[in-house]
Amino acid sequence: MMLEELGEVLEAVPEDSGREAYLAAIVDENRLGKPTVASRKGTAQRLSEFYALDPRIPIFRVLRRLWALDPTSRPLLALLCSLARDGFLRASANAVLPLMPGAELLRASLTEALAKPSEGKLNASSLDKVARNTASSWCQSGHLEGRVRKLRRRVVPTPAATAFAVWLGAQAGLAGEFLLRTPFAAVLDAGPAQLLEYALRAHQQDLIVARSYGQVVELDASPLDPASKGR
User: Fold this and answer.
1) Which of 49, 89, 100, 110 reaches 20 to 30 Å from 55, CA-CA?
2) pLDDT in tens, 105-149
3) Among the listed residues 35, 23, 183, the one whose alpha carbon sits nearest the alpha carbon of residue 98
4) Which residues span the domain enclosing 138?
5) Residue 76 falls within a domain, yes or no?
6) What pTM did the predictor assign?
7) What is the number of structural domains in the chain?
8) What is the DSSP string of 26-80?
């Protein structure tokens, strides 16, 4: 998911900039230190695919706001955004998330999970490259560790990451406690009760609206978007 490159670009470009500034920083100014123009353009394209790099697109506005607020959440924020925009990464979650801490991610299980979204269009070599890239993304997010053997480890949720997961679930049309049970919430390695506690902390930070009345859970992530009314 190119976490380091994303961080460098967001550091180089002022928050109120348009898409053109992000592309200029990568391609024209070479802020990422790429060796050729072709590699700069390729990097700009891939980062755009993962993160949009366009403040006109809501998911990027939310990512950019949370990125500035909580640096410790950045690996999870990048993963959540990438999951929403990349089908291969979403498919790979089926091989990664069910693993117990310390269990090894087998290449065969990851490749099998990735084969479905590829719809037979990728040859073995291309599928293997996708598997390496997705495994690297899960390492960057903190869900896997190890250079050769990829071992599962638990991540620690944060209020910012929980707020983003709730917001993404709301974009899919879900509401209430269901927002704590989505595939986005699943990557936070915590159950609904624990995630509700983080959502309530996000409420205290004025990120989202979160209230609990006995068995009734109210969650409204619309305030998270800087372009939303009332902000």
Assistant:
1) 89
2) 999 999 999 988 888 778 888 999 999 999 999 999 999 999 999
3) 183
4) 81-152
5) no
6) 0.95
7) 3
8) IIIS-TT--SSHHHHHHHHHHHHHHH---TTSHHHHHHHHHHHH-GGGHHHHHHH
